[in-house]
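Exercise: predict the fold of this chain.
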Amino acid sequence: MKIDWRRVLAGSGLFTPGGLLLRAGILVLVYLVLHVLGLRDYVTVLSGTSVSGKPPDPSDTTIAVSYAAAYLAFVLAVPIMVLAAGIFAAARHWAGPASGSPQQ
């Protein structure tokens, strides 16, 4: 079974519980991949030191900034998105069906 990812990403709205959880999961996945690849060591470039002891390359700086951005998204954005998804889901559950929708 082949999954059409464009339809999955477009089908869940940005500000829906499923959409927030999906995007939080993507951020977690990106962070975990970068962490498993060992790119955490490159963040030392931001303080002026290098992993190898040589002057840092521009590619080292790019790797460091990418890892730092993924880390900050993992630490700051993911918990907020998960909490917001829970609040939206609870609000939908307690609010009941939307007005104007047919009762079943």
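Check your answer against the key: The chain has three helices and no strands.
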